Amino acid sequence: MRVMMICFAIAVSLAGLGALAVGVAALTRGWVPPESRKLIVRPRLYGRGMVALAICAFLMAANWVLVTDPILRKLGQMAGFLAVIVIAHLTGASRRPADVQPQEGDKP
């Protein structure tokens, strides 16, 4: 069971590392991944959300590996879940509204 938790924490940390790279690129250069370019209108806000998601992923992975008390582990999981909900709202605010179509002069 312990080995499975460590492997899962490594996988979540690698995903967090990818999110961190995308977030830093969006914050510093305004770069957004190609599949999201038509949807994202505020790349800096998107970058902040991705960096926050990466930090949340790292903290959740550390919670799985380092915390042994079951009550503290559950509290850490609940805090991580709430953080993911806030981050989803933050990255959702960076997107184009659903009823607005991209115009000819809009940045991709």
Please report the number of helical segments: 3
Distance between the termini: 46 Å
Question: How many strand elements?
Answer: 0
Radius of gyration: 16 Å
The residue-averaged pLDDT reads 86
How can the largest sheet be summarized? none
* General form: elongated
Counted up, domains total: 1
Hey, roughly how much beta strand do the residues contain?
A: under 5%
> Helical amount among residues, as a percent range?
over 70%
The class by helix and strand makeup works out as mainly alpha
Order of helices and strands: HHH
Low-confidence stretches: none
How would you sum up this structure in a few lines?
This protein is mainly α and 108 residues long.
Q: Can you put this structure into words, describing what you see?
A:
The protein is an all-alpha fold. It has one domain. The chain has 3 helices and no strands. Helix 1 (about 1-30) packs antiparallel against helix 2. The termini are far apart. The model has no long low-confidence stretch (mean pLDDT about 85).
What attributes characterize this protein structure?
single chain, mainly alpha, 108 residues, 70% helix
Tell me the layout of helices and strands:
Layout: H1 2-29, H2 43-66, H3 70-93
